[in-house]
Amino acid sequence: MRNKIRKGDTVEIISGRFEDKGRRGEVINVIPKNDRVVVQGANLRTKHQAQVQTQGRTINPGLIRFEGPMHISNVMLVCPKCDQPTRIAVQRDEDGAHRVCKKCEAIIE
């Protein structure tokens, strides 16, 4: 099934880690193969980076913080018109398929 959440959408996290629940953020990346999304500022991970020297460049050692992927079922799209997390319907017409908010029935671009 095709995902209804796309890159650049604002989503709200509805389940998962306690510190992330209820947080809103923009979708940075969608991984449809695994049904996962990466949300800006949520599900932060820490990686210990060793100093690496490749092709004359050096990568500094230290801790790197980055956003990890989370399952797409843990987020809900926020409607830009009513500013509420909502389910999404797909409405088809002669212009093509459009995503529609289930609460206020506004077309989401």
Short description:
By secondary structure, the chain is mainly β.
Keywords:
six-stranded antiparallel beta sheet; mainly beta; three-stranded antiparallel beta sheet; 109 residues
SSE topology:
Layout: E1 10-13, E2 24-31, E3 36-39, E4 44-49, E5 52-54, E6 57-59, E7 62-67, E8 70-71, E9 75-78, E10 85-86, E11 88-93, E12 96-101, E13 107-108
Antiparallel strand pairs: 1-2, 1-9, 2-3, 3-8, 4-7, 5-6, 9-10, 11-12, 12-13
Which term fits the overall shape? elongated
- Tell me, rounded to a whole number, the average pLDDT: 91
Strand content: over 45%
H/E element order: EEEEEEEEEEEEE
Major beta sheet summary: 6 strands, antiparallel
How many helices?
0
- Widest β-sheet, arrangement of strands: 8-3-2-1-9-10
Query: What's the Cα radius of gyration?
Result: 18 Å
How many beta-strand segments?
A: 13
Terminal Cα span:
20 Å
Question: What structural class do you assign from the helix and strand content?
Answer: mainly beta
Please estimate the helix content.
Answer: under 10%
What are the segments in which pLDDT stays under 50 over at least 5 consecutive residues?
none
Overview of the structural elements:
The chain has about 110 residues and is mostly beta strands. It is built from no helices and 13 strands. The chain has strands spanning about 10-15, 25-30, 35-40, 45-50, 50-55, 55-60, 60-65, 70, 75-80, 85, 90-95, 95-100, 105-109. The strands form four sheets. Strands 8-3-2-1-9-10 form a six-stranded antiparallel β-sheet, with no helix packed on it. The radius of gyration is 18 Å and the shape is elongated.
